[in-house]
């Protein structure tokens, strides 16, 4: 997940604001997308008729898929990013990738995982040992084979639904006509211009992408035709607001409730709905706004003659398509427009690289080869060519041609490095998706990037970069053989082997990390492979479902490079596994690479890296966004030094009684699902397993929560106990009545529509929505399906078989109609929580203890009527199995509740995303993040770089936006002539006594007044009796007082010391480690 922003991401966000485990590997869950609404339903065409024709023309270019289904189990995380319509367009797209070195393979991987219709691989060259530095599909056995042919089989294994083929003959313009997108990663500029002219003028246009990776330099050029319509520029959900007031005036002022900040921008188009009084606004017409503020905006419309606003109303942003006019490469070379920047400390770099890549093309066309690494003659020749081109550039002339940079460029020009290929493979893969679908804003039109800071800190000798007849020769030509040895000897800990982990293992295997005799990579992950993983975690195949992720990933990575010294573990990294990942383990590491998906685990690993002073390379993704953070001992702040604010939680009373959006309904639905089908059956089993202990604990608690728990057990074993499936149907039907009829009747009885608050304001004012009870009808399929699914899960908890007739809707409807439903009378004394600060809906009572005793007596009576081996089956929510009825029940609960409150309902897929808390994920952003991290890994393993050389990154491939910045240095504390940061840990060896510790600190000018170990106080100067401890060993005090257990592998213990200086000022000192062995 995208865990938190790096330091520069705040700037990035400002820029943005301005502009599944299957029960069987072969099981399929299909969605008929022809019946699904497009995710672009909120997008309207511009007023001009030409805009509509452009959209229609591009639709023709996008094509129509013959495959009318999406495998939801496989693509659920990708669906959360793209939506069905984009996926449909992908399924209809044919893509050509020309040039199958490392970059071509990375692009192909990402597109095949995404699920395009077909990928054709083109290359006329053969595999060389050199290619193994960057291409994960090649092995030494492939040397001498055609590069395209050698790639087909392994790439096809990634997704059998995509047709992968090879083309090994010379490419002609006629070959291009059958593709929606063509990508060239290894082509001369002359040939590229020829092909691009053809694609640009073709009807419909063929999207053209030219990408190059040359050493630590890369470039991308995109041309999607003379008129390309972007259907959704950012992929974000349309923003909404709940209206509080609307004025009757020219340029109407509209205020919204302060429940959430508005995210509107000046110039946005919005539509109104549910407005009472000023109903003229409910016509669905998009209206322009201005003066957007956090809770208000102005409407560019005269509402003087409209009705007076009464209450209610929702305002929703209307996303507009955008027309882009791409220039062909021939024109864009001389008129490139604005370059897309990635690093604002290199503001002058893109024009220079624009020149450098043209100079390299001329060099290779004249010399018939790339510049030789380390050849000063070749470097000077390239510099001369660049200077000559620059002279004739006119307005594009670069004022300062950096010879040093061009020298680096020349030396590495032949090499395709894996981290660069991974990064650019993610960027280009995403551009192809944009070209196929119109989803997200394309790169317009040039992007240049370099990472020269990754070069070794010491100058390289020409002999060090000479080829060694090794699979790492391409990398050696940039970094040298001595540095290659550092990579091979590295001891790396990779935490996690999911999407990020798979990419990291592949990258490091190709780079040769931990591939030497002294090197070792340890990867750990306690998770198993699920079908939903296969669309991103590319080291896994469908036959691996159910197997341990780390084991399969390690095996697959070792197949990429047989010399990879990798060990796979299945341990969670945490305090409970410190016997596995002990002090010796951490102390022996060179670097830690996190590939985690939750903040708590990241914080724990960060704390260990901080403690043992190990570099930590951190990254995360969220849909098309990704970020990286470098945590370098003594140079940067640690990961935990800055935190994102906690996500805002809806008040409990809002979720339970006053929902006003579908998220509230789904939160409530999941809570009810877990309470009814998991927690209550689990409590029943806990009681039946140990009746005496269980009832004693409840009597000891004696509170409202214990009372409620016992009431649920009594209901489950007594009046709501199910003996057969008809009982389950009855229970489900009565649950429907309770949730969606009776509770609503009680609510509106207690708070009628005209109710007022204590201040006289209307009780049912925004954001509250006045509810209406539902009426059951078996003719409504949604109600019938919900009750049937709920009954089936109820039967599962009781171990009751489900009869075949439940599959017949008519039979199920008849059985449900036979349920007797009693009339409901609202209670006058009902208490409904309205306090938004309340943390529980349960109210305590003075007679709780007596009620609990009575309930225990009832439970005991129920138990005696049960067979001794009776147990219920708790159901744990599993979102990724669409045959288990879990999402049917949760979506049904949420949508019925939404219907109560006139909230728009959602389909089961959208419900799964929200209730299942699915993190949107795609292969492209994952690949880019890991490529960026591995560029930083070069710097870490070199060991000589200053903080200025490191980069933290925030990127959003949807916009696209790249924001790179130096990491933030750690806070420095100074005392006398000493200085320290959070990275420092003071070590005291020799198994000292308390007196010796105090004297050691006093020698530093520090007066310790408190020493604690864990939560226990070992010494405090205010307590006279503590002076008796002065001559005891600190380790003995920890054992005797703090009851610290020190296992044999532990050689020290840590104490926290509070100190003052001689002026009685508190001094925050580092953790003190007392070594006793």
The level of helicity is 25-40%
Low-confidence stretches: 1-61, 63-67
Helix run count:
30
How do the strands line up in the largest sheet? 20-19-18-21-22-23-24-25
Task: Give the rounded overall mean pLDDT.
Answer: 91
- Strand content bin: 5-15%
**N-to-C span:** 41 Å
Global morphology: globular
- Quick one: biggest sheet? 8 strands, mixed
Structural class: alpha/beta
Secondary structure: number of strands:
33
Report Rg.
Answer: 33 Å
Structure characterization notes:
It is a single chain. This protein has an eight-stranded mixed sheet, sandwiched between helices. The protein has a seven-stranded mixed sheet with strand order 5-4-3-6-7-8-17, with helices on both faces. It contains 30 helices and 33 strands. 37% of the residues lie in helices and 15% in strands. Strand 7 and strand 8 form a beta hairpin. By secondary structure, the chain is an alpha/beta fold. The N terminus is likely disordered. It is globular, with a radius of gyration of 33 Å.
């Amino acid at each position: 997940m995208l865990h938190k922003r790096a330091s520069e991401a705040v700037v990035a966000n400002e820029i943005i604001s301005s502009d599944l485990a299957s029960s069987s590997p072969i099981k399929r869950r299909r969605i008929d997308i022809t019946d699904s609404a497009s995710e672009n339903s909120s997008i309207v065409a511009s007023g001009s008729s030409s805009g509509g024709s452009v959209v229609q023309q591009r639709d023709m270019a996008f094509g129509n898929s013959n495959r009318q289904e999406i495998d939801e189990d496989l693509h659920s995380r990708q669906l959360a990013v793209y939506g069905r319509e984009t996926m449909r367009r992908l399924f209809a797209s044919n893509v050509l990738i020309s040039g199958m070195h490392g970059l071509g393979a990375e692009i192909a991987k990402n597109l095949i995982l995404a699920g395009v219709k077909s990928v054709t691989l083109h290359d006329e060259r053969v595999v060389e040992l050199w290619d193994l530095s960057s291409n994960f599909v090649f092995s030494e056995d492939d040397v001498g084979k055609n590069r395209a042919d050698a790639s087909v089989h392994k790439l096809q294994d990634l997704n059998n639904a995509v047709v992968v083929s090879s083309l090994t003959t010379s490419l002609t313009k006629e070959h291009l006509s059958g593709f929606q997108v063509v990508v060239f990663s290894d082509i001369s500029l002359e040939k590229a211009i020829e092909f691009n002219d053809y694609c640009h003028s073709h009807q419909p246009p063929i999207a053209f992408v030219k990408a190059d990776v040359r050493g630590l330099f890369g470039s991308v050029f995109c041309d999607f035709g003379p008129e390309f319509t972007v259907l959704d520029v950012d992929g974000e959900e349309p923003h909404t607001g709940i209206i509080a007031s609307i004025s009757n005036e020219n340029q109407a002022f509209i205020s919204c409730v302060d429940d959430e900040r508005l995210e509107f921008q000046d110039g946005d188009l919005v539509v109104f709905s549910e407005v009472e009084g000023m109903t003229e606004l409910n016509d669905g017409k998009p209206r322009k706004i201005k003066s957007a503020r956090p809770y208000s905006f102005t409407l560019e419309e005269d509402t003087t003659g409209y009705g007076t606003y009464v209450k209610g109303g929702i305002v929703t942003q209307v996303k507009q398509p955008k027309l882009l006019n791409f220039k062909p490469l021939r024109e864009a070379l001389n008129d490139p427009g604005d370059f897309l920047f990635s690093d604002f400390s290199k503001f002058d770099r893109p024009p220079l690289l624009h020149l450098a890549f043209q100079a390299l093309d001329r060099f290779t066309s004249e010399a018939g080869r790339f510049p030789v690494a380390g050849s000063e003659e070749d470097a000077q020749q390239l510099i001369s060519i660049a200077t000559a081109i620059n002279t004739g550039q006119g307005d594009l002339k670069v004022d300062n041609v950096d010879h040093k940079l061009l020298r680096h460029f020349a030396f590495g020009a032949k090499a395709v490095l894996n981290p660069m290929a991974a990064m650019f493979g993610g960027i280009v893969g995403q551009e192809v998706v944009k070209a196929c679908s119109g989803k997200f804003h394309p790169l317009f039109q040039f992007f240049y990037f370099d990472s020269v800071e990754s070069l070794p800190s010491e100058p390289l000798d020409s002999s060090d970069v000479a080829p060694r007849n090794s699979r790492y020769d391409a990398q050696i030509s940039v970094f040298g053989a001595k540095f290659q040895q550092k990579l091979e000897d590295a001891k790396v800990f990779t935490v996690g082997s999911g999407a990020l982990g798979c990419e990291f293992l592949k990258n490091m295997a190709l780079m040769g990390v931990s591939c030497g005799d002294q090197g070792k990579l340890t990867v750990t992950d306690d998770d198993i492979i699920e079908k939903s993983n296969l669309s991103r975690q590319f080291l896994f195949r469908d036959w691996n479902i159910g197997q341990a992720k780390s084991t399969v990933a390690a095996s697959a990575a070792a197949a990429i490079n047989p010399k990879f010294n990798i060990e796979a573990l299945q341990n969670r990294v945490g305090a409970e596994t410190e016997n596995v990942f002990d002090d010796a383990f951490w102390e022996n590491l060179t670097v830690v690479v996190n590939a985690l998906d939750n903040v708590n685990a990241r914080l724990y690993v960060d704390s260990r890296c901080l403690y043992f002073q190990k570099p930590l390379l951190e990254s995360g993704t969220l849909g098309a966004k990704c970020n990286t953070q470098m945590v370098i001992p003594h140079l940067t702040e640690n990961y935990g030094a800055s935190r994102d604010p906690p996500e805002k939680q809806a008040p409990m009373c809002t979720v339970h009684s006053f929902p006003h959006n579908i998220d509230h309904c789904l939160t409530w639905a999941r809570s009810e699902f877990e309470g009814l089908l998991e927690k209550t059956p689990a409590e029943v089993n806990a009681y039946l397993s140990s009746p005496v202990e269980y009832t004693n604990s409840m009597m000891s608690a004696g509170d409202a929560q214990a009372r409620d728990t016992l009431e649920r057990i009594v209901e489950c074993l007594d009046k709501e106990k199910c003996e057969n499936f008809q009982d389950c149907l009855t229970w489900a039907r009565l649950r429907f009545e309770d949730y969606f009829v009776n509770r609503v009747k009680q609510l509106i009885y207690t708070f009628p529509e005209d109710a007022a608050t204590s201040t006289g304001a209307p009780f049912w004012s925004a954001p509250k929505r006045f509810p209406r009870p539902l009426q059951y009808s078996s003719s409504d399929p949604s109600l019938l399906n919900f009750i049937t699914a709920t009954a089936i899960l109820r039967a599962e908890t009781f171990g009751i078989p489900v009869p075949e007739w439940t599959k017949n809707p008519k039979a199920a409807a008849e059985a449900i109609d036979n349920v007797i439903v009693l009339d409901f009378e609202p209670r006058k004394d009902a208490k409904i929580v309205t306090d938004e600060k309340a943390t529980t809906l349960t109210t305590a009572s003075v007679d709780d203890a007596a009620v609990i005793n009575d309930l225990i007596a009832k439970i005991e009576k129920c138990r005696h009527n049960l067979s001794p081996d009776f147990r219920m089956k708790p159901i744990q929510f599993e979102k990724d199995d669409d045959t288990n009825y879990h999402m049917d029940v949760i979506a049904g609960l949420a949508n019925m509740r939404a219907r109560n409150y006139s909230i728009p309902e959602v389909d089961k897929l959208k419900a799964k995303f929200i209730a299942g808390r699915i993190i949107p994920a795609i292969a492209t952003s994952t690949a880019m993040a890991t490529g960026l991290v591995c560029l930083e890994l070069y710097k870490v393993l070199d060991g000589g770089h200053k903080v200025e050389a490191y980069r933290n990154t925030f990127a959003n491939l949807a916009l696209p936006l790249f924001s790179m910045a130096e990491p933030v240095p750690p806070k420095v504390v100074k005392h006398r002539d000493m200085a320290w940061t959070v990275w420092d840990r003071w070590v005291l060896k020799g198994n000292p006594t308390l007196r010796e510790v105090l004297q050691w600190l006093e020698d530093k000018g520090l007066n310790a007044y408190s020493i604690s170990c864990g939560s226990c106080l070992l010494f405090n100067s205010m307590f006279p009796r503590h002076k008796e401890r002065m001559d005891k060993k600190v380790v003995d005090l920890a054992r005797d007082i703090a009851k610290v257990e020190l296992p044999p592998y532990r050689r020290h213990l840590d104490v926290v010391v509070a100190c003052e200086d001689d002026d009685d000022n508190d001094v925050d000192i580092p953790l003190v480690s007392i070594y006793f062995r």
